[in-house]
Amino acid sequence: MTYCVGLLLNEGIVLLSDTRTNAGLDNIAVYRKTFLFEEPGERVVAILTAGSLSVTQTAMALLQDAIEDPDGEHHNSIMKAPSMLKVAEIVGNTLASVRQDIDAKMNAAKVSTSASLIVAGQRRGGAMRMFLIYPEGNFIEATQDTPYLQIGEHKYGKPILDRVVTMETTLHDAQKAVLLSMDSTLRSNLSVGMPLDLTVIENDACRATLQRRIEAGDDAFREMSEAWSQALRDGFSRIEI
């Protein structure tokens, strides 16, 4: 399993994913779940993946092939699409098609082919947008009321986002929020694991302005985690019933 989270803010977009993939207690591997496509200054599209690795890897490969096709049309290349809404449609259609194809082959084995994606980005002259793509290819969009989206093992990291994140949250505080959200998930679910991939896209930059891989044992992440644990213990002790 995995955990991915994306925040859509006035100042930009903040994305975080883990990298753990497991097919059993004794078969744990690391795979990147954040994929970035950009033409700096013109367009940036980030895709976070969760679910069946065969489905997500095939879908990402097909999207990459469409980008690299010299004869590709606007209807199948996320780097030529006229809007982020069209990008979401292309990604959704690709995911649904791949899932149906693999599902037909794996049906007898009763293997799950469910997968979901977060698609976020901006094209020059357009607004920043972020979508959650469901396994069937349909999607929902982040809004003023719900400025964050999660896929994978999301329940452990949701409370802090509900309490602190709004569209007005700064990029600095947003990075802290997603990292603490991930820290809560790491502590509660063994199917989510390091290293982590953090991506920040500032509004109107049309490129990734920060990309950071956080490895196991990272001093800054460890200190933040310990400080959060201490803050929770202190807050708990001060509450009267």
Largest sheet: 5 strands, antiparallel
Low-confidence stretches: none
Number of domains: 1
| Count, helices | 5
Arithmetic mean pLDDT: 93
Report the helical percentage.
25-40%
What's the total number of strands? 12
Measured by DSSP, the beta-strand proportion falls in 25-35%
CATH-level-4 superfamily name: Aminohydrolase, N-terminal nucleophile (Ntn) domain
What is the CA-based Rg, rounded? Answer: 18 Å
Distance between the termini: 38 Å
Looking at the structure, the CATH topology is: Glutamine Phosphoribosylpyrophosphate, subunit 1, domain 1
Topology:
Layout: E1 3-8, E2 12-17, E3 20-22, E4 28-30, E5 34-39, E6 43-51, H1 53-68, H2 84-106, E7 115-123, E8 129-133, E9 139-141, E10 148-152, H3 158-164, H4 171-188, E11 196-202, E12 210-214, H5 219-238
Antiparallel strand pairs: 1-2, 1-10, 2-11, 3-4, 5-6, 6-7, 7-8, 8-9, 11-12
